[in-house]
Hints:
There is one protein chain. This protein is an alpha/beta fold. It has helices at residues 34-45, 59-68, 83-96, 115-121, 133-154; strands at 5-8, 12-15, 21-25, 49-52, 73-78, 103-108, 123-127. The protein has a five-stranded parallel β-sheet, with helices on both faces. It has a two-stranded antiparallel sheet with strand order 1-2. Strand 5, helix 3 (83-96) and strand 6 form a beta-alpha-beta unit. Helix 2 (59-68) packs across helix 3 (83-96). The chain is globular, with a radius of gyration of 15 Å.
Amino acid sequence: MWGGRYSVSGKSQKYTEAPIKILLAKPAIDGHDRGIFVLAKAFRDAGMDVIYAGLLPTPEEVVDTAINEDVDVIALSLLNGAHMTAFRNVMEILKKRGVNDIAVVGGGIIPDEDKPALERMGITGNFGPGTPLNIIIDHIKARAREIRKLRENEY
């Protein structure tokens, strides 16, 4: 298993390497957090270290938390239609601060016509409601793997 822990004889756990560290955030006025709790549990059950930024963090707070917690992935979620503004703000702040070693994944109510623009910003996934959790988890693992390779080559 990559990026997490596995059970050895059902009693103890060993780390094959550090678990994927993921920050879940809703960087705008959006109080719909049920879905993000479902994701948090699924990511935790997949062996990831999960941090939830809480409701209503600013894009600056999201980036500050991501840097301070040294996460591999930021997972942004919005259901209010503000993704083109709020997600872009997160990406611009990351760029302004010279951060290129944190993957950003999006999700929520995102119209298909907005997805190419988000991808060009570097926000991948852009999953909608009803996406099977295993598809999202596999995507997060792949992005984290890319970021860790990038970090290995930088340091």
